[in-house]
Amino acid sequence: MDDLTERGLQVFSDLMGPEAAEQMRAAMNDTGIGADVARLATDFAFGSVWSRDGLERKQRSLVVIGVLIAQRQYQELKNHIRIGLTNGLTVREIEEAIIQTIPYLGFPAVASAIGPVMEVLRERGLDTGTATAEERGLM
Questions:
Q1: What gap in Å lies between CA 51 and CA 57, rounded to an integer?
Q2: DSSP letters along 12-43, please?
Q3: Which H or E run includes 62?
Q4: Which residues form the Carboxymuconolactone decarboxylase-like domain (predicted)?
Q5: What's the whole-number mean pLDDT along residues 46-72?
Q6: What is the pTM of this model?
Q7: CATH architecture, domain defined by 54-139
Q8: If DSSP codes are grouped into helix, strand and coil, which group holds residue 88?
């Protein structure tokens, strides 16, 4: 593997853990359609973009969280909430990032993001006792 791929796998390991990086390595070596996607993600997203200077990883996480809420990509949002926590984001910082998106995205997009965020916080033992709109019967 070339240097870009190795750098991408190292960043991916830092963000998601060594087991996830090994799964990514295996996906790149697969023969199916997903192999090229895995290589592009590793080389471009992690090897080129996440490894750049100029922003700390914590700041990059905030940007990605906002973008994923805007795109309503809630499965990937869960991954990046995990990554944000790994990068040192606090629950309060995540909450403020979510609130910051309301004027630009609207309440429906943000309300729909709360469930996936709470799922990750609960999984990490960071539940603040907050019920989601779905749990309250509001959605």
A1: 9
A2: HHHHH-HHHHHHHHHHHHSSSTHHHHHHHIII
A3: helix 57-71
A4: 36-115
A5: 97
A6: 0.89
A7: Up-down Bundle (1.20)
A8: coil
| Banded model confidence at residue 139, pLDDT cuts 50, 70, 90 | low
Give tens-digit pLDDT for 6-18: 999 999 999 999 9
All CATH 1.20.1290.10 domain ranges of the chain, comma separated, are 54-139
CB 26 within 8 A of CB 12: no
Torsion of CA 68, 7, 89, 119, to 10 degrees: 50
User: Across all residues in the chain, what is the average pLDDT?
Assistant: 93
Q: Say which residue the tokens 């979510």 belong to.
A: 98
Residues 81, 114 contacting (CB under 8 angstroms)? no
101-131 pLDDT tens trace? 999 999 999 999 999 999 999 999 998 777 7
Distances (CA, A) of 12 to 7, 20, 44, 89: 9, 8, 11, 17
Helix and strand totals (H; E) in the chain: 7, 0
What token pair was written down for 138? 């509001």
Structure tokens at 40: 């592009």
